[in-house]
Each structure stands twice: as structure tokens, then as C-alpha cells.
Design goal:
membrane, single chain, mainly alpha, transmembrane helix
Length: 40
């Protein structure tokens, strides 16, 4: 689910705008948080 969204964003290349960067960082934060809860 989440991995598919990240791979889709990766296909578009690097983010161009600040809003896109904030979205990418926010998604990565959610993934890290999810992994911490899931693994620990």
C-alpha cells in the first residue's frame, strides 16, 4: 500500500517544489513511524 505510493512518487523523479518536499518528508515520517510500531 504505502510502498506502492512511494514507488509511484519515485517514478516522477525528485520533487520540484517545497510542497512536494514536505509531502515526501511527511510520507517518510509516516512510514518510519509505522515500521517502529510494527517492528517494536
Amino acid at each position: 500500500m504505502v510502498v506502492a505510493e512511494v514507488s509511484d512518487m519515485a517514478m516522477f523523479g525528485l520533487p520540484k517544489t517545497q510542497i512536494e518536499w514536505m509531502t515526501v518528508i511527511f510520507c517518510l515520517f509516516i512510514i518510519v513511524l509505522f515500521l517502529k510500531i510494527y517492528l517494536f
